[in-house]
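Thread title: Can someone regenerate the structure for this chain?

I was given the following input by a collaborator and told the matching structure tokens would be attached. They weren't. Posting the sequence so someone can regenerate them.
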Amino acid sequence: MAGNAITRLTLAKINRLKFAVPPIAEQRAIAAALGDLDELIAASGRGIAKRRDLKQAAMQQLLTGRTRLPGFADPWATRKLGELASFQSGGTPRMADPTLWVGDVPWVSPKDMKVPRLHDVPDRVSIKALSNGTRLAPTGAIFIVIRGMILAHTFPVARCERPLAFNQDIKALITHIDVDSEFLLYWLTWSGPTILEICDESTHGTKRLPTLPLQSLNVLLPPLAEQRAIAAVLADFDAELEALEAERAKWRLVKQGAMQELLTGRTRLV
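Best answer:
Regenerated them for you:
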């Protein structure tokens, strides 16, 4: 490729490239083998989509009380989200002080909020930073993104699976004793489209989730034992999805390795 402001790939350069090309019969055999791997990857993708649809349907039924799990019949209570958890703000330590950025404490920012459960993140701060610009959320806290352009289309939610520090674009919800944090994780995830509707914009045009309207949202809350039972059912869906994602990733690696071998002639088909 060439160019300064805009890089480009010319047809003349493409035409000068040389490739090792097998006879047509072997080309077709290689393409068929790789096509079989493409179908395995596609089948994994269809399985993932199906399980996601089933999980979404289960959330719709279980988190609204339309379907009750066996053994549960006690009434549910309507509570405000702000009554279910305390809301804590994070922060960013001073960049000018390098001692705040050398340590073993994981520090979460919105870029890390791509998975529903946070075990670790790349950025680190020191213990000193926890009282100098940021704070530590306990295991079980629920992180939500409250500022950023991602809120134009997605509401990131994640549960802390270990104590984690976090920045100012995230709030940590620390559930009260009668609220299961796993249940709240699923409720917030399911309620994402509704929550996005209350977002507004800051003076700089960045999307923002105001705290008071968020805390005022109504939550239909079952007793604690039923919360845990519902969360366990939905966690089973997550485990199945994780296994299917791992399977698809495996087939993608197999295909990459097969292409490396078959398209270079290192391995020949019989």
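The longest helix spans residues 24-62.
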